[in-house]
Every structure is written in structure tokens, then in C-alpha cells.
């Protein structure tokens, strides 16, 4: 199914949740804010190793890497993703994020894009 990973994650009031990252501007680190997206949530979750996964196999890490690369390389954020990959992604998102982020992310992952004919 096709999912748009550029969708923004919202807070309880429907406002975009802001994420932060540090970038270099004129040789100095500057913290910038930007809307949290499903893409960022997915990639952060896929790249994490959780306390209950200390013995995660190389095969499982490679599977997560491939899902992450498909999301990262997607043109316009749209990924044709298998249902098992969505299930795996939902599992790690639930381990990493708060209730509101999980709620929005799961709804987005369960709602395919409409096909325009």
C-alpha cells in the first residue's frame, strides 16, 4: 500500500509537533525547529535499538535498514510498503514514542493514499 511519509505528526490540539536538530550556520551550531513527520518518526524508530532488543539479529537489523532506506529515498515521501513492513514499523514506533505520536503515526500507516485514476 502507498503511504505518504511526509505527513506531519500533530499534538492533541491538532497543531504540528516540532522537532529540533542542530545545523551549522557560518561555522557555528544552530538549533532549528521543524514539523515532525511520519518519515522522521519512522527513521528514528527503525534506527533505534531498544532495551528488550539487545540481542537483535543481523537479519532483523538489515530488514529495518532496508525499510528505512525505502522511506529515506522515496520521491515526494510516497512509499509503496508491504503490510508486514508496516506491522514491523508500528512495533518500533510504539516502543520509541509517546501516545499522541503513536496514535497519529499508526493512523497514517493504516490509511493508504487514494489512487487517482
Topology:
Layout: E1 2-4, E2 18-25, E3 28-35, H1 38-47, H2 58-72, E4 78-80, H3 83-96, H4 99-109
Antiparallel strand pairs: 1-4, 2-3
In terms of per-residue confidence, which ranges show pLDDT below 50 for 5 or more consecutive residues?
A: none
Radius of gyration: 15 Å
Q: Name the helicity range.
A: 40-55%
Judging from the principal axes of the Cα atoms, what is the shape? globular
Q: Which class best fits the helix and strand makeup?
A: alpha+beta
- The strands making up the biggest β-sheet line up spatially as 1-4
Overall description:
It is a single chain. The chain has 117 residues and is of the alpha+beta class. It has one domain. Helices cover 43% and strands 19% of the residues. The protein has four helices and four strands. It has helices at 38-47, 58-72, 83-96, 99-109, and strands spanning 2-4, 18-25, 28-35, 78-80. The strands form two sheets. It has a two-stranded antiparallel ribbon with strand order 1-4. Helix 1 (38-47) runs antiparallel to helix 2. It is globular, with a radius of gyration of 15 Å. The two termini are 16 Å apart. The model has no long low-confidence stretch (mean pLDDT 93).
Write a brief structural summary.
The chain has 117 residues and is an alpha+beta fold. Helices cover 43% and strands 19% of the residues.
Which key terms come to mind for this protein?
single chain, 117 residues, alpha+beta, two-stranded antiparallel ribbon, two-stranded antiparallel sheet, 4 helices, 4 strands, globular
